[in-house]
Every structure is written in C-alpha cells, then in structure tokens.
Amino acid sequence: MGAPGAPIDATKRPKAEAGDHEIDLAGHYVLPGFVDLHGHLGGHEQGTPAEYVLKLWMAHGITTSADPGSGNGLEFMIDHKKKSEANQITAPRLKPYVTFGQGVKEPIIRPEQARAFVQDAARRGADGLKFFGLRPDLMAAAIDEAKKQGLRTTCHHAQLAVARLNVLDTARMGLTSMQHWYGLPEALFTDRRCRTTRATTTTTTSRTASRRPDVSGGRRRPGSPRWNAVMEELLKLAFTLSPTFHAYETTRDFMRMSRAEWHEEYTIPSLWRFYLPSRTNHSSYFHYWTTEDEVAWRDNYRLWMTFVNEYKNRGGRVGVGTDSGYTFNLYGFSFVREMELLREAGFHPLEVIRAATLRGAEALGVADRVGSLEPGKLADMVVVDENPVLNLKVLYGTGAVKLTEKNEVVRVGGVRFTIKDGIVYDAKKLLADVRRMVREAKDKEGFEIRSPGR
Q1: Global pTM exceeds 0.85
Q2: Domain containing 68 — which CATH number?
Q3: Mean pLDDT within 440-445
C-alpha cells in the first residue's frame, strides 16, 4: 500500500500492449491475495452449493484456501482444484487435505496400514492430511510417511484423544500445523494430561466442546517456566498456529454471532437451519448458553490470545484460518472477523495482513508463488478503496459504517476487485450473485431468518 499522493515515475511503468485492460486505481489500496488455512468448501450437512461458498470467498479477497478434511470427498475437492487452476470456475486456488482414515473399509490398526493410507492420499492428489488424534504409533507412522510423500499435516487435537497426544507431542513427531486451540492447554499442564470442565462436556459428531473451559490449576501462566519451554520448542520446530478464534466466538458472544448483520442477505436457508442449536449437527453445542459460559470463555480467550500473540512476537508463524460454515460463522465474512480477532490479540494491523497473506502461504508451502506482491509471483491481489490498516472492517462485504461531514450515514469499503492469476473479478458483482442465490432459495421455501427459538 503506497502513500496517497506519492509521485509515480512514469518511465518505470510497464507499457500496455494491444488487448490489455487498464484499471485506474488512484486512491485505492492493493494487498496480496488472502490465504485461508481452514476453509471448508461447504458440505452435505449444510446444503451449501460450491458456487455459493466460492463466490463469498473470492468476494472477500481469498485467492488461496486450504480445506482441512475435504468433507465432500477428496475427488470432489480435486475436481474443483483442477477447474480453479484452469480458471474454469470463479474460485480461489484450492489445497485439499484429506481426513486421516476417510473412506477406509477396514479400521487402520497397524502402522503399515497408516503408511499405506498416506501413500494412497498422495497418489490421489491430496496436498496434506488432517488428523483428529490417533494412537501414538499410528500418528508417528502417518506423519513420517507424509513427510516422505511431501504432504503437509495439520491436526484438530480432539478432546477424545488429546490425553494421549497433545500439540507438543505431535509437533515433535513432525506435524506442520495445528488447528483451533485443542491440545495447546494440555501441553502447558504440569499436573495432569487433559483439561477438566466446570460443567458437562458435549460431544456433537466429531467436535467436542467443554462448556466452561478450565483456565486455572494445572495450566501454567504466561511467563512461567512451562509456558516458555513449550513456546520455545514449538518455535524451534517451525510449527504453525492456525487459531481460528472466530470459529469459537459464539461461545463468548452468542448474540453477536447469531444476529450478525450479514445473515439476512447472505446466509442461505439450509445453512441457517444447520446453525441452529441441535443435538445432531456438527459443532452445535450451545444448547442452553448462559452468561456464566460466556464469561468463562472470555477468560479462556485472554490466555489463548496471549499465547498466540507472544508466539508471533517471538518469531512464530501464525496464519488466518476460519473454519466457516459452523456456529453462525459465514464464509468470507469470517475471514475478516478472524483478522479483527488477531488485532484484538495484540497484532499490529500490518502483522494481521501478513498473517492473512505471506504467513498463510508459508504454512502451505506456496510462498514462492503467492503471499506477497513481488516479481516472479502470481498476480493475486485484493483492491479496496478504503485503508484496511486504519479499519479492517472495510474488508467486509457489507463494508463499514461512516458518518460524513454532511452528517450522512454511509457505507464505505468492501473489496472492489479480487485478482487471481491476473484475472480481475468484480467483488461487488460476486456478492450480488450470492444475494440472488439466497433470495431465490428463500422465495422458493417462503423462508425468513428469525432469532433461534422464535
């Protein structure tokens, strides 16, 4: 982003050739394309069409997205990856990770079976593997084979398995990144292996959430010997944190998430129904969410954010991941909100943008091609007419509220253009397409978004 009014040396400007299209971006701000480390391409459960998700991502400047899990199947993801690479569809470049064990007919119970699964995933075109936790010998074999096959690895250290392997254990095995926060508190304990809770623990499909996380007792505080030892070892291992703060924001502010202003025009009916409190839907654990629960989670966020910010300050890699499509977390909009939460954690706005671009590219092993605006890299850019360093909210598709000197309330910002592989996409038109999809789905069903329970 250059300073407004800075002189331009016209002699160094490339000359447009016949057929080239020029865009006057005077007064605009240009950033590298955004990289989402945790972007699920919809799912059968949510009933979200791929086009709907992809256009929301592109409308918010996301030009690279890793899908840790490939819930619709690896073949589905590979198909969309190839079409994106050929620019046959409006989509970020996609990096599909396959969930370990996905689609196997027989349980994986031996290390050689784990290795065979990884070899097959590499053969089928996966870019990486996602784990939820395994028996230690199986995890060690799978991670080792992934390194041999050139695959990256990430883990959601599920609470049903974290007592055996926490973040430090798996990082020592060679895991390249973690998702969310599970497994990190357990690595900091000195008097236990897993967390306790102050109320019941609820399991919904593959996610387990403690209603009130324990932030006392066995967890050592910032600056303690154990805190420093864990952080220093993760730094030496060049481990990547993808905290996905926004994925759990419903836990600390149910009202904010369930009534976010973009739901009305951009949340498709099937997704809204999936969001609602349920005893069967994935990640729907807020069955009777109380003030006490929210206060406990705010306490948890303070420690979580402190660790992540300090990790960044000591040179650690932190990227932006969203885990969209769950708990009122909407595709595209969630990326900007995750950036805001990194800012709340203590990141400077420029550090937030770096986490959303170059750090994400490094985590995916594609920093030689994307993540920054440099000669020799692909032309992935985000163009906005307001300064995101002053206000990250201008990146939202709904823009930011501003009062003019004439005392008029206006909306400003919103990404104007997303450029991927040098192809220019009008972000406003992409959002209009999404609004049309949502409106047609609502009209067909006679659907109206209402507060949960009303």
Answers
A1: yes
A2: 3.20.20.140
A3: 93
